[in-house]
Amino acid sequence: MTAALPVSTRSAELPVCAAPPLVDFLRKVPDARDARGRRHSLEAILVLVVVAMLAGRTHNLGIHEWGRNAEEAIVKAFGFKNGRTPAASTLHLVLKSLDWEEFAEQLRDWALALLRQLDPLGEAALSCDGKAVRGSLRAGAEVAHLVSIFTSELGITLDLDPVDTKSSELDAAPRLLLRLPIAGRTLVADALFTQPSISAAVVKAGADYVLPVKGNQPGLQAELRAVFAAPLPYDWRCEEAETFNRAHGRQEHRRLVLVAPPPEERVDWPGVQQYYLLQRWRYAKDWRGRVRQSFTAVYGVTSLGRDRAGARKVLDLVRGHWGIENRSHWIRDTLLREDDSRLATTQVVKVLAGLRGTVLTILHGYRRTTGARSVAAARRKLEQDPWVALDLLRGGL
């Protein structure tokens, strides 16, 4: 009689939500391989890749070695009926054969289902930002940047679009926004995306924006500078908010001034309702122990009216957007080793980039439900118990 496969060692007290199972979406990814000679199912291979990445393996060879060293029971639980995982070359060929658009659609549908589960009222703001793919770019891959939509509050990578060397991040942003249900949400982005076309698209989709204004919009920047340099009229309803933070030997003082000018006196920008001026003072000690001070001032526009956002909320939205740097980009480069990847095959670079976004979402969710100190600590726990990682793919996030 064949022994039953071991069950997960996951604790019964572990708090979970009824998240949509990722495996259900991976199962829908079309398999372009010829059925003749196909030894492993595509679902099993993708599950192996995700679990191995959760265990700290960031490239095909590492994933292959991790799979070959895994216990037979969990290999069979992945779906490898003969108990043997594929070679690194097979992994490369399979990932290369995937249709990026169809694959990305399944990852996006899963992330959106998870967002609806965790944020049913649609209150979480969306951050849009790009990052370079330095290692693969130096190796000759055509992918130069990744533009992603990320919820800093929940740690969910909603969508991601690789940008090739012949395009720009500005080309990718509208594509991302058009295929996401952003109505009712607020988009926060870097100054690169402060463009009339993007602002108009956001407003047309029934969403709002909070955008900084810098040198790429010199005319708008000059208008806002003149507004805040002069005494503000009483009917512009000037409002202020401040924060003080101390961490890692640094002190920061932020002050945001928000004004809501009458419609006839607003600057010419799609959907604009209010302007803001964000001032930031930073104090930090140098290597000699001397305190160094820096000061920055940034102007911005938002389509949120005063009835929906005062100075405190706008300041919170701007600060929340900075989370995409340390909760997404920094983790992708330091923990998931994205910049260290030397893959030159563009299709594989895209697929692994999409999977890193999914793995990052899982890590943030696991950290949130278990109370782990950091994402790195959450990954170390999953590295020690791949059965828990497999449970997360089956819906226990």
Structure commentary:
The protein is of the alpha+beta class. The protein is 42% helix and 20% strand. The chain is built from 15 helices and 9 strands. It has a 9-stranded mixed sheet, sandwiched between helices. The relative contact order is 0.16.
Please provide a brief summary of the model.
This protein is of the alpha+beta class and 397 residues long. Helices cover 42% and strands 20% of the residues.
Q: What's the domain count?
A: 2
The rough form would be described as elongated
- Mind describing the biggest β-sheet? 9 strands, mixed
Number of distinct beta strands: 9
The order of strands across the largest sheet is 3-2-1-4-5-9-8-7-6
Q: Determine the CATH topology of the largest domain.
A: Transposase Inhibitor Protein From Tn5, Chain A, domain 1
CATH class of the largest domain, anyone? Alpha Beta
Q: For this entry, what is the oligomeric state of its chains?
A: single chain
What ranges have pLDDT less than 50 throughout 5 or more consecutive residues? 1-16
Q: Give the overall average pLDDT.
A: 89
Output the number of helix runs. Answer: 15
* Class from secondary-structure proportions: alpha+beta
What is the rounded distance between the termini? 34 Å
- Helix proportion range: 40-55%
What Rg, in angstroms, do the CA atoms define? 23 Å
**CATH architecture annotation name of the largest domain:** Alpha-Beta Complex
Strand content: 15-25%
The run of helices and strands is: HHHHHHEHEEHEHEHEEEEHHHHH
